[in-house]
Design brief:
about 90 residues, mainly alpha, 1 helix, rod-shaped
């Protein structure tokens, strides 16, 4: 091999090594980002699930609350009638 060939071989080897190191670093960063995205998605699912549970509780309590409001309105009407008779 001539000097030119040796120089080109060294340059290409160094560039290939740098390229491989950059790819390894990029792969590690991509894995870390994907893990962070997975954690965020899991937290978002937990928030959605707790919101759904809260809606269920409100929906289930809506019937008893309506009955309580009706009883309260009846008591108010009876109190008004009693006050007006006095």
């Amino acid at each position: 091999m001539t000097t030119t060939d040796t120089t080109l071989l060294i340059i290409l080897t160094v560039l290939l090594s740098i390229f491989i190191l950059v790819l390894i670093a990029a792969a590690i960063l991509a894995i870390q980002v994907l893990a962070a995205v997975k954690r965020v998605a899991a937290k978002a699912e937990d928030v959605v699930q707790s919101a759904e549970e809260a809606v269920e509780v409100i929906r289930d309590a809506h019937g008893p609350m309506a009955a309580f409001k009706m009883v309260r309105n009846i008591i108010k009407v009876v109190n008004k009638v009693n006050r007006s008779r006095k």
